[in-house]
Amino acid sequence: MLRFFRHFFFFLAYTIFHQVLYAGDSMPEPHELPTASFPWKTDTVPKRKSVTPSVFITQKEEAVATADTFSIENGLVRRTFRFNPAKEGFCTIAFVNKSSGENYVKKDTEEFLCMAGDQRITGKDCIYKRHSSIRSNDEQTLTVQLYCPGAKLDVILTYIIYDHIPLVRKRIKLVNTSSREIPLTNLDIERLQLEVANTYMNEVYANFGTNLTRVPYKGDYNDAAVLLYNPNVRQGVLLGNESPSVLKRTEIYSAPGTVSLGLSLITDPYPFKKWLAPADTFASPQTFMYTLQTPKWQDFFEESYQDFIREKLGVKLFQQKKAPFFMYNTWQPFFANINEKLLKECVDSLAGTETDLFIIDAGWYKRSGDFNADSSKFPQGMKPVCDYIRQKNMRVGVWFTISGVHAKSEVAQQHPQWLIKDKHGRPANLHDDNYEEDGDNWNSGMRTMSLGSPYYDHMKETIRKYVNEWGVSYIKLDLSVAHSAYVHDLDRWGDYESNPSKLYKDRESSLWVLYERDLQLMDELHAEFPDLLLDCTFEVWGRYNSIDYALVQHADYDWLTNFDFPPPAGPISIRQMNYDRSRVVPANTLLIGNQFMDFPNYRYVYFSMASASALMVGDPRKLTKEAKAFYGKWNSWFREMERKYQFSQYRQLYDIFDRPTDSNWDGCYRINTKKGGGILFFYRNNSADQTRTFKVPCVERNAKYRIYSHEEGKVTGIYSGARLMDEGIKIFIPTVYTAKVLAIEKVL
Question: Would you say domain 317-649 falls under CATH 1.10.3810.10?
């Protein structure tokens, strides 16, 4: 009894002390926290009454607290925090995989890290002030407010958890409470002492889950998600980083026992640096940690992880009400040699193919930057051509450089202060090695404008004008913004010049601003034109074949690469690229160019494209009647299957399909597991086997499924889910370099 009263009076005294200490403070509602440095990336949770902060958060809100600890959890994962009520110190003390009961976090965790000028700050340097939790539908958001007295920064940590997904998402906001501007560098949004049971035999699956390596590991722009997996205990943590392009950094045990997710170091080839003015707020990109217990590492990239990507990540393409299925682009074989007559002939030749989108690539304008139609090619301007395309029941797409301008363009001549400068102080071409001063080609006299200048407004108004006047539905944004995908010279990135018209103070801080403004431009265009499709190419993103979560959260597509070689090499290469990226990013956000509609083996090409995004080039005037009928039949069918099952948002590989090669079989499933239907893709390459059997793990064991061949116009079999899962389906393809496409539907 004496012990009970001693604990009771201690708790009462602590509670009174805590309330008196913060009686004069006012904790804003989470949605009222200072605005982000990503101004377009705002929290979307609705305003609700905040849970009483500090000592307790109710069990109903699923964030549980004691005097100096509190947790955020669901039925699958729990993260517990500890703060020191008497002095500095805040950190995670547990990240628990509830399926195994293992706590992966070890002692001496720092929670985050940032250099504020010359001062290194972590959670250990911060005073806990308060926390609050709100719930919206199946999401719970925990907000923790800290203060770093040494750096004079408010630190606001936001953690999000979703019902039925073993994942915790995180963001950090830094508010400058001092009277001086503070440079922020070396930001670790997440910094934990973390082990998956132990460090013995740890495996790292990097480069979009395609590359097995070992610790220590430092990830780069290819690592939107990195898996740390322990095969001995069959557990792991998938580490997600939503930072853009080359500014992304994920490290596993570069420092002993430390896992960190954040932005590039100031000493890295492409550094992150942000100048934070007094009273301003910087909001980081988000990171996440997803945990699972499974004997197969491939399972980490399936099921509930894909639910997160599809439903919670914020993929722009999935927000489109009517995305196109089949797209045609003019680039090859015509390149920039296009005109009104040619385009209309191509439009007419596509009749009957059920093409959804007609993209006019480079060559329609006189000089990039000004983007006035070339009157020698389009004497009546571009509007009649765009109107003609729409009259033929196709949507219109148009190509633009986002930052590239002709050196003799009016905008470059009138506003030289907007140009990015090289280390010699000259107008820079960040895209390639072309430094000619003039010329009439599509890329002549190329120079790079800064999106951190009023050129941003010029570009935005140019696009707005043509979307409104021409009825454009798709914009291809191309060429370099901050650095080149082709030029590997570390002296040629960013802007060496700062002037009053630019939003950065030095070269290092220009990178963040240039990427930030690129994303902001796409968000503002989407806000005004919700149905507008925006394609941010790998050239804009600055690395060959590059794509990540930041891109797909703001653009609908990424023109990822081009494969110019004919079948079979071209289609196999395309399926390799889709295989290499689609475990981590949605396959339908990937556009891959330069496969011709009029290739001899166009069926093999088409079905290879159709397993992700169906984009083709070529000369439609050369299409045979049989080819047109083929395209029309299959495009209509795929559109109907999309209407029924939204299969484009689903793609399954598991450990069932190998990476495509010339000598094997490959494939993928596109099954909507919520509705029980979708499409099965199988490809026999130059394999000697005419028959293969494939298990189908993404079905319900106790359900029945109908397999249907649109090619043959008949049902090929009725299968139990158990049979599909345990025995599989036998596929017969009699000839090499041939595809088989089947529908699968749950029988009610």
Answer: no
